Amino acid sequence: xxxxxYSKYYxxxxxxxxxxxxxxxxxxxxxxxxxxxxxxxAAYGGGxxxxxxxxxxxxxxxVLSMKYVxxxxxxxxxxxxxxxxxxxxxxxxxxxxxxxxxxxxxFDPQLRCQKTVETACDILEAVLSExxxxxx
Length: 136
What we know:
mainly alpha
């Protein structure tokens, strides 16, 4: 499970939510991203550092792009429905996709945004699994 992989990045190496999701997914799904590629998502943490869209969600959407977009999103019939599903599930869970709205529901001073990262792992894995089952 993806959730079994995230801890080494979040707890052991102190990465933020976005960095954790992309690094764990890179390991788990063998996305073949290089370290420099993943650094590109660093500023997504903390809701793009402003409390806006949750960094864990943005990283999860980035994983979807890596898995389902070959060249351009416009040419991918898969990316819109699967992204829409992922966003819908976050909205169902938290009533928002904004960090400033999610954080009060799941932040713990000791664990930081661990609950949100775990939720992102669960939602991403479920969406990918269900979508892959549908397209086989």
